[in-house]
Amino acid sequence: MEYKEIMSRLENIVSTDVHPIPEDTLTEERERFRDTHRKSLEIFERAKEVIPGGVEHNLSTSDPYPLTMDRVKGYKIWDIDGNEYVDYLLCGAPIILGHHFDPLDDEIIRIIQEKGPATGLTSEFEVLAAEKIIEHMPAVESVRFLQSGTEADMAAIRIARTFTEKVKIIKVGGSYHGWSDQLVTSLHIPGTGPLNCKGIPPECYAHTMDVPPNDVDALEKAFEEAGAQGGVAAVIVEPIGGESGTHPVHPDWNRTVREMCDSNDSLLIFDEVVSGFRVDMGGAQKYFNVMPDITVLGKIITHGYPSTGAVAGRKDVMDVIIRGMGQKPYLGGTLAGNPISTGACYHAIRLMEENDAVGKATAYANRLTKAMNDLFSTREDLPFFVYNYGPIMHYETSSFFQVSLTGPDPLNQIITRKKICEDYQMVAMNQGLNSLAGTRMYTCMQHDDDALDKTLETWEYVLSLIPKG
Ligand SMILES: Cc1ncc(COP(=O)(O)O)c(C=O)c1O
Asked: What is the chain's alpha carbon radius of gyration, rounded to the nearest angstrom?
């Protein structure tokens, strides 16, 4: 779907009423949920005693309570009660070969058995993994492995400041670049500023500026403002739009940002933690044919195995890391670049190549996007729709991420609209469908006709619970 159509449909959703499932129906659904997820409840009760809120992960569902998962295989996930789900969360995007993919697992088991987990020194896998990344990503000449996307984003802005000797970082509102002190401003919803900065002294994010998505004038103004305040070291973007395309990117945006960075001697950072090896083997930089100076990677590069993050890019920029003492940005990590993670990276990318994982996951996502849009169009009273960037699908029902903070009663709007998404999500989980935050679906190369049928059946059921009108 074209950018213009996506934006006008989103605008239509947020400017019209929501479509709730009646509370008595939700009560019945929750009762059924409790019946079929008893062990999860038992574990949640224990977890609450020893883990804050009883749950570790931001992406867990919480209504009526988080589920405890047991195992995964292919596109499926099973909870501790034995319920089976078609999985579109895929661990938050790292999985594209399919969960628990034997040829990858076999390599990791071999590394553990033959080599051991880590030495604190370099292994050949680091080089193999870096070479594989460079082979595919056109703007990458040099790679430094770290332990998470958050760390890699922190490293990227530190490298940019060292290289340019400038201070300010411009981010796009609504984007996610991990949870470090400098980058959690204007998270999720553009314009929310320090809403998520509790526990961070304002001095820490004083040099982070944010602009609304796709707003060229605001970007120009930010560059002007920053000029007198130490200049812009880098603009950091999620190249498919904030939060993995939740705030869709205008087709000209990345190129415009590139040009503005060039004319201001600032660097462009692409955060490809989600888009890398997912929208294309060459990442969004290849997909849009716009080359960043620094690329941030994570998630998929270790395909579900731990310690996943890398900062990468132009060699002259990356080489600031090897300057002498007092001249270099300090980066590190005890387990960074360990043989298991870098072995997983090398073999995962090799297996993606051999299996055309991106091509297959994209073909499935295109098919499912069309099928869901066809299904939604059978309900003319509902404005629901789906769009996708390759194997990253967004299904829009109440679109709480799009609420404008300058509109009427924004906080209430966000809370109400978020609850609607969570209600649909709870019903879908009850039917055996797992997605992300009630708005997003990642696909893998193993999703098949059965998965597609089950997804459509589930949504038919969800729609049947929403009164017509
Ligand atoms: C675009 C983007 N950047 C950075 C991160 C942070 O990565 P990690 O969770 O590995 O710290 C994420 C995580 O979801 C992300 O989506």
From this structure: 22
